[in-house]
């Protein structure tokens, strides 16, 4: 065996990496790992019965999605944001997501819009915050799913991921009072999408995101003072 071949790392198994990334994505979005919490490669590898190589690749995937920060010196952790950062990210979402929806709207099929209707019906019949967050994400991501720009869609998903924890914390505080507002806004947005009215859809979505941003600002206790 040559010196070169002896030092070459084994090839990454994309199936294992995607499996681990998928499970960790669900765990982070579901609140199992809190902002600022560190994830050790060896611990995660043991959890999934894998070597460190697919775990390292899974970390890289999640970093591109805004769900993890990886530093050569500090390792991997779930991003932790302060109030200003979340406020800024929401302002970015207010501008970016209406554009993503506008680009997606001409390409959305009736089947996809019907799927949004069914998701909204499940949201209205649900009273569990964790389940609501999953369904709410499905609702909006379905509306964006036909966007032909991969860059635009990726940026939208990354911003959504980055603010997920703080939205969950807020919804736990707000409870059912917030649910009625969300449902009304979703219905307005769904109606605009069915009518293929990009102007109304943009306006309703921007207001929907802005309302959450303003509400979050009234709860500074949800945020770190810096990480």
From TrEMBL:
List the CDD domains hit by this protein, alphabetically: WHTH_GntR
> Is the keyword Cell inner membrane assigned to this protein?
no
Q: Which domain of life is it from?
A: Bacteria
Query: Which keywords does this Swiss-Prot/TrEMBL entry list?
Result: DNA-binding, Transcription, Transcription regulation
Which InterPro entries does the record associate with it? GntR_C, TF_FadR/GntR_C, Tscrpt_reg_HTH_GntR, WH-like_DNA-bd_sf, WH_DNA-bd_sf
Q: Which residues form the HTH gntR-type domain?
A: 14-81
Q: What is this protein called?
A: GntR family transcriptional regulator
Provide the species name.
Answer: Longivirga aurantiaca
